[in-house]
Amino acid sequence: MNIGISTACLYPAITENSLRTLLGLGFRKFEIFFNCSYEMQPPFLRGIKAMLDEYGAKVVSVHPYTAAFESMIVFTDYPRRLDEGRELYRRYSHAAAFLGAKYIVMHGDKSCVLPDEAYYERFHELDLLCRENGAILTQENVNAFRSHDPGFIGRMREYLGDVKFTLDIKQCVRAGVDPFDMLDAMGENIVHFHVNDNDGRNSCLLPGLGRTDYSEIRKRLDAFGFAGSWILEVYSKNFTEERQLRQSADYLEQFIG
């Protein structure tokens, strides 16, 4: 199966149980959503790695649980919190590298304490730290965060050059942004894709239950040379039976080949 999935789809099931269930459904490509600091400790990571190896599966990305307060620990003007933020992302990058994940997904800032260029520099600093430890930091577009705006994302790409992005359809919809506008703003720097659906009333649905044009998305991604993963990311309230996740992934397969 080419379609990957986030363990967050089964939240609040504990992470290792989510992974075990999704492996049983036939998924072999994952984003691991860390839900607490315990899940970055070596014994836990070794258990996750053993489970993945048993099935010949791989992790392509990790998602920090601290995404909700990155304004305080990364995009802050208080130096001691920033030092703690650096150390935290050092741990995330070590955990990602241990699991074989190439990318870390960041929400970013919504406090607007820092001007845009200072934000971009701070992100770049953290990205370099993560790369030194074997992973790449990616900026995700997220509703209610500064990254919801295609203009902000486009300026970030222009300013940093080599910055990498994660596209999330539902976050575009919630922000009132056309997903194709966000995709164009990210351009050839998009490396990771959170895929879901919507229908005008619901901002997040299983793919195939809404009106998203995946054929056009595939065409645009191909034009930008996208070689990343399609990662199914919905919420547990968006389905009633776990097998629906597999059915949705099977539906998406026709669009990516």
Q: What do these coordinates show?
A:
This protein has one domain: TIM Barrel (Alpha-Beta Barrel). An 8-stranded parallel beta barrel has the order 1-2-3-4-5-6-7-8, surrounded by 4 helices. The termini are close together. It is built from 10 helices and 8 strands. Helix content is 45%, strand content 15%. It has 257 residues and is α/β, with parallel strands linked by helices. Helix 5 (116-132) links the parallel strand 4 (103-106) and strand 5. Helix 1 runs parallel beside helix 2 (42-55), helix 4 packs across helix 5 (116-132) and helix 6 (150-160) packs parallel to helix 8. The mean pLDDT is 97.
What is the multimeric organization of the chains shown?
single chain
- Tell the overall outline: globular
Global structural class: alpha/beta
Largest sheet: 8 strands, parallel, barrel
Strand order of the largest sheet: 1-2-3-4-5-6-7-8
User: What percentage of residues falls in helices of 4 or more residues?
Assistant: 40-55%
**How far do the termini sit from each other?**
10 Å
CATH superfamily membership? Divalent-metal-dependent TIM barrel enzymes
- CATH class descriptor name: Alpha Beta
Number of continuous helical runs: 10
Radius of gyration based on Cα positions: 17 Å
**Count of domain modules:** 1
Q: What are the segments in which pLDDT stays under 50 over at least 5 consecutive residues?
A: none
Secondary-structure element series: EHEHEHHEHEHEHHEHEH
User: What would CATH call the architecture?
Assistant: Alpha-Beta Barrel
Overall residue-averaged pLDDT value = 97
Question: What name does CATH use for the topology?
Answer: TIM Barrel
Could you tell me the strand content as a percent range? 5-15%
